[in-house]
Amino acid sequence: MEKHNWIIEKKEPIEVNRLFTAVKAEVCNPRNKNRKEFVRLELADWVNILAITAEKEVVLVRQFRFGSEQMEWELPGGVVEAGEPPLEAGIRELKEESGFAGDSARILTTFAPNPAVQNNEMTVILVENAVKVAEQQLDPMEDIEVHLVKLDTLITMIQDGTLRQSFTHAALFHYLLQTGQVHKQDLADGSIP
Length: 193
Known about the structure:
By secondary structure, the protein is of the alpha+beta class. The protein is built from 4 helices and 10 strands, in the order βββββββαβββααα. It has helices at about 85-100, 150-160, 165-180, 185-190, and strands spanning about 5-15, 20-30, 35-40, 45-50, 55-65, 70-75, 75-80, 100-110, 120-130, 145-150. The strands form 3 sheets. It has a 4-stranded mixed β-sheet, with helices on both faces. Strand 2 and strand 3 (about 35-40) form a beta hairpin. It is globular.
């Protein structure tokens, strides 16, 4: 994490609920000494899981999301419980939401979902050779459809707006880079439309 010389004072929680703690603070810009009140949402870290079968199908879930008030397509995922390593959380969430498990689970990347107003991290777990091993173990307010989708279909779903969830976009981008299906040079010279 990069150090900074911003002054943060008078931090205090202004709302605490089951999803987040909202914290306000007075922040001083070291360049011009201007001060302003900021609010940050403190949330648990999250995981999402890019699970790929031996047939190169991706495990996707479709579920109602209150934020958008729509059914949304996305990768399985959820909250990292206190003290739980992200890799274990990913394996657990994949099995709970989809009934799938696989081998060679590893961390693909970690990123900040929205560092302007949130303090948490999202870790993407890659699970290969995913197979259905159990029935879903859903929370009382979950109603999740599980679908297997070919990688090229997943890309089309992103391009046409069917799959709108940004964490899934980021996970897929990192996977394509790390597997050599997209190259930095392709991005630099504009060969990717």
